[in-house]
Amino acid sequence: MQFYRRPQPIGALSFDLDDTLYDNVPVMRRAEAEGYRALCELFPEAGRWTQEQWAQRRWQLMQSDPSLASDMTLLRLVTLQRGLMELGVEEHVARAGAEQGFQAFINARNQVTVPAQTHAMLKALGQRYPLIAISNGNVDTKEIGLRDYFEHVIQPGEGRRGKPYPDMFMAAQAHYPNVSPARWLHIGDSPLADVLGAHRVGWQAAWFRGGIYDEHELVVLPTFAYADNQHLADYLLA
């Protein structure tokens, strides 16, 4: 573990999910492929664009509309609907088709294998701290076997923006009014969504080095960085 800031006493923990508690890269590869296959079955014209071209359109939309960039469910639905309409599908049909295509994606997206080490860590930490999950993603924590560890699971939707916007962090604080911002520790792999997001609301941040990001992508320094969940658990339980 590497410390960048002086740690403060911790009163509550919040966890990111994807690529922090389990390897989400192979999950997303399978889900993307399944979503594309299902979409092309429903709408043969969707096959005029490759899976990579659909992903590029989603990326472009994310860059042009920051409100969509932090809500992965809405981003995908809007990408599918607008893409189908551009390919000649009528709006009401495209809207329903986007929902169907997304459902095929999300079914595969929830086929996650969570390491036994993660289960053991969350069980132990939950006996010491209030635990919540704060995720921009759309994984179903009940489906993947993690829901019972968390007192609350907070995700974008219904006007609530994702990280690094403060909305979900503030929603977490509202559940625990006696825990000051400085006593929260948010744990995640994204330098922007997790570390910067926590920093903006006055929280401490633990950056997981084993995710999909590199150190040069850090915008602000976390309280500390770690590369193994066992090291994190040992520190927090000491």
How do the strands and helices of this protein lay out in sequence?
Layout: E1 2-3, E2 12-15, H1 25-42, H2 51-64, H3 66-69, H4 72-86, H5 91-109, H6 116-126, E3 131-134, E4 152-154, H7 167-175, E5 184-188, H8 191-200, E6 204-208, E7 224-226, H9 229-237
Parallel strand pairs: 2-3, 2-5, 3-4, 5-6, 6-7
Antiparallel strand pairs: 1-7
Helix pairs in contact: 1-5, 2-4, 4-5, 6-9
Write up what this structure looks like:
The protein is of the alpha/beta class and 238 residues long. The chain is 46% helix and 11% strand. It has 9 helices and 7 strands; from the N terminus they run E-E-H-H-H-H-H-H-E-E-H-E-H-E-E-H. The chain has helices at 25-42, 51-64, 66-69, 72-86, 91-109, 116-126, 167-175, 191-200, 229-237, and strands at 2-3, 12-15, 131-134, 152-154, 184-188, 204-208, 224-226. The protein has a 7-stranded mixed beta sheet with strand order 1-7-6-5-2-3-4, sandwiched between helices. Strand 5 (184-188), helix 8 (191-200) and strand 6 (204-208) form a beta-alpha-beta unit.
